[in-house]
């Protein structure tokens, strides 16, 4: 004889005689199942020894949750971070690296040396034209023998220092003058024309003396008077000393 229906074991894992738990169905049942899963996560995280309080849980949206964990150090402050470079510990012989006191002693020294080593590691960036501070940029400019206009913005000064090698190689030539004008006054279109020439004769003694070398600097846009004076000073500084020049600027209408 079969047992009565009330004493028949359930289909689920519950005790005998208890109905199996409901299974989430499609539609609204999915949301109920997601809410149940979310409640289970909340209970699991908040319960038990060492668990988080329910207020420390941030639940967002059905079926999704974000748990925030915070490290508690009590009344003591957090320990200092050890040196990541290990410049002293990594260079010691292995017999000293096995000694705990020696390693802790060297670690204390590394915490004092880390700022100095960090500065030395970043030293190339301090003298880079792209990254150098303004005062270091002026120092590099004086080392390279460049003269900058104080009214120039820092971006133009960096560009001049970046092209210092090209200015040095082309110094005293037409190309060097054009490069200096383009870097010093990028807002004005300059062009340089040389007054050169060729003389020849069958009899070398019949040749007339060659004219003095000279060149003309043209600008097709008007330049204020104070800027013209700055342009003239730049030309005087970069041109050959024995060469004469003229500066021709289109007048404003």
Give a brief description.
The protein is mainly alpha-helical and 253 residues long. The chain contains 9 helices and 5 strands, in the order αββαααααααββαβ. β1 (57-59) and β2 (65-67) form a beta hairpin.
Helices and strands in order:
Elements: H1 28-46, E1 57-59, E2 65-67, H2 94-97, H3 100-121, H4 123-126, H5 134-143, H6 154-162, H7 164-169, H8 174-184, E3 190-194, E4 214-219, H9 225-238, E5 244-249
Parallel strand pairs: 4-5
Antiparallel strand pairs: 1-2, 3-4
Biased composition (Basic and acidic residues): 1-11
InterPro entries: Tail_protein_I, Unchr_phage_tail-like
Region (Disordered): 1-35
Terminal residue distance: 120 Å
Assigned CATH architecture of the domain at 174-199 and 210-253: 2-Layer Sandwich
C-alpha Rg, in Å?
Answer: 41 Å
Binned strand content: 5-15%
What does this structure look like?
With 253 residues, this protein is mainly α. Among the domains are: 89-121, no CATH class; 174-199 and 210-253, GMP Synthetase, Chain A, domain 3 (2-Layer Sandwich). Helices cover 39% and strands 9% of the residues. It has 9 helices and 5 strands. The chain has a 3-stranded mixed beta sheet, with helices on one face. It has a two-stranded antiparallel ribbon with strand order 1-2. Strand 1 (57-59) and strand 2 form a beta hairpin. The radius of gyration is 41 Å and the shape is elongated. It starts with 27 loop residues before the first helix and ends with a strand.
Name its key features:
single chain, mainly alpha, GMP Synthetase, Chain A, domain 3, three-stranded mixed beta sheet, two-stranded antiparallel ribbon, 9% strand, elongated
């Amino acid at each position: 004889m079969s047992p009565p229906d009330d004493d028949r074991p359930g289909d689920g894992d519950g005790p005998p005689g208890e109905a199996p738990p409901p299974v989430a169905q499609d539609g609204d049942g999915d949301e109920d199942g997601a809410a149940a899963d979310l409640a289970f996560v909340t209970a699991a995280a908040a319960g038990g020894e060492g668990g988080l309080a329910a207020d420390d849980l941030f639940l967002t949206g059905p079926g999704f949750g974000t748990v925030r964990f915070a490290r508690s150090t009590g009344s003591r402050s957090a320990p200092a971070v050890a040196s990541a470079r290990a410049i002293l510990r990594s260079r010691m012989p292995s017999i000293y690296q096995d000694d705990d006191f020696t390693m802790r002693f060297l670690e204390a020294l590394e915490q004092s040396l880390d700022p100095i080593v960090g500065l030395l590691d970043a030293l190339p960036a301090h003298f880079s034209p792209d990254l150098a501070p303004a005062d270091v940029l002026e120092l590099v400019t004086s080392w390279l023998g460049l003269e900058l206009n104080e009214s120039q913005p820092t971006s133009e000064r960096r560009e001049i220092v970046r092209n210092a090698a090209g200015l040095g190689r082309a110094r005293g030539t037409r190309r060097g003058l054009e490069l200096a004008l383009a870097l010093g006054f990028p807002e004005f279109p300059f062009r340089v024309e040389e007054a050169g020439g060729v003389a020849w004769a069958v009899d070398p003694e019949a040749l007339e003396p060659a004219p003095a070398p000279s060149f003309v600097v043209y600008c097709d846009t008007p330049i204020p008077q104070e800027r013209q004076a700055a342009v003239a000073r730049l030309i005087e500084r970069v041109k050959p000393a024995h060469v004469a020049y003229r500066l021709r600027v289109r007048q404003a209408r």
